[in-house]
Amino acid sequence: MNHYTRNDCEQLDQQDPLAAMRDAFAIPEGMIYLDGNSLGVRPKAAKERALQVIEQEWGTDLIKSWNTAGWFELPYKLGDKVAQIIGADAGEVVVTDSTGINLYKVLAAALTLTERKVIVMNGSNFPTDNYMAQGLLQQLGSDYEIRFAEHDNIMQAIDEDVAVVCLTHVHYKTGEVFDMAAVTAKAEQCGAISIWDLCHSAGAMDVQLNACNADFAVGCTYKYLNGGPGSPGFIFAAKRHHGKALQPLTGWWGHAAPFAFERDYRPAENIGQMLSGTQPILSLAVTEVGLDIFLQVDIKQIREKSQKLTQLFIDLMEQRCGQYGFTLVSPRDASIRGSQVSFNHEHGYPVMQAMISRDVVGDFRAPKNVRFGFTPLYISYVDVWDAVDRIVDIMETNLWQQPEFNQRGAVT
Question: Which site in 35, 76, 204, 363 is 20 to 30 Å from 242, CA atoms measured?
Answer without folding.
Answer: 204
